[in-house]
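The protein record quoted in full:
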Amino acid sequence: MEYKTLNLKEYMPTVDQALKMIEIEVELCKKEGIKALKIIHGYGSSGVGGEIRKALKNWAKLSMRKGLFEDFIRGEEFLSETQKVKDAKTICPELVGDIDLYFANPGISVIIIQK
């Protein structure tokens, strides 16, 4: 398996707990040779984006600079045919078959662990 899912909505963590869970899961994915991690974080009940979603975006930028993982793609980006999305689908073909990624879902993000 080259692809794994972390469903944060299932655990209802705080922002800090969620980021720690994601960091641990990324490290596990690296050890297991997993190429992509789909994170279900939700979009927030307000309809303007949840706190975990916002924090994850900022955390991902910093974590990529530190070399923790290769790339970060928000769910709503998957309908675009940007080079980043094309690369992700090539690196991890299982992403192509994931129905969650065909609806520009802002409650999901994908981390590309390794290229």
